[in-house]
Write a structure and sequence with these properties.
73% helix, 231 residues, mainly alpha
């Protein structure tokens, strides 16, 4: 496994920090501010101010523009796609094998996969997962490169942030923490979000489709988790 590319690229970015750690503090403050805004939207604003996500996204995009981010740096191009996909393949295999085993043990759950509606929903869900990986890896992970220079500790923090956005759903919290940590480790080595988004989409689709609604609560997070009612 070649880790030189990610380490060299990261070292160059960290070298741009100003003396005294001002840039690191600014990056950490920015991460906390944007993340707090996301949590507030999930828990309070999505009902009272449903379009406040627009200025939140604008802050993220402006930050990336102001810092000279490129599509390549954010992992949005085809560069390192194959390398990233190669590292993501074992994760995908584990997810699929786990789903097959569960479906064999719980045959009635497998019936939920045999619908056109379920598979059509996968396309839209992949787009949503790509957006999540854009925020998690292209934005939060990259911002944390300066204040947290240890890549494994940073991956841990990324995993915690990702899981924190899925509170209080216990199934999604466990899955997103594990996925967030692993994806951050892969993104550090190979900057490309597309294989990560695909693996997340497959995992989320299988979890949401196979899991009993009473357990997964229709993949809801925030207050919506508590308002879920089985019909």
């Amino acid at each position: 496994m070649n880790t030189a590319g990610g380490a060299i690229s990261e070292a160059k970015e960290q070298s741009k920090s100003t003396p005294g750690g001002t840039t690191s503090l600014a990056a950490a403050g920015e991460v906390l501010g944007v993340y707090a805004g996301i949590l507030l939207y999930i828990w309070r604003w999505q009902e009272t101010h449903p379009f406040i996500w627009v200025p939140l996204l604008a802050v993220v995009l402006f930050s990336q523009w102001a810092r000279g981010e490129t599509f390549e740096k954010m992992g949005l191009t085809g560069k390192e796609f194959r390398e990233c996909a190669r590292l993501s393949l074992p994760v995908l295999a584990a997810v699929v094998i786990g789903a097959v085993v569960y479906a064999v043990l719980e045959p009635e759950s497998a019936a939920r996969l045999a619908t056109i509606r379920a598979w059509l929903s996968f396309v839209g869900y992949f787009v949503w997962c790509a957006f999540q990986q854009f925020l998690t890896q292209s934005y939060f992970h990259r911002r944390l490169m300066r204040p947290i220079q240890n890549p494994h500790l940073r991956s841990l923090v990324v995993g915690l942030l990702f899981a924190g956005a899925h509170v209080p759903n216990p199934v999604l919290m466990v899955a997103t923490f594990a996925g967030g940590f692993i994806f951050a480790e892969i993104f550090y080595l190979h900057r490309n979000i597309w294989p990560l988004a695909f693996v997340q989409a497959v995992a989320g689709f299988l979890i949401g489709t196979l899991s009993p609604p009473g357990i997964i609560h229709n993949m809801r997070v925030g207050p919506g988790y508590y308002f879920f009612h089985m019909h």
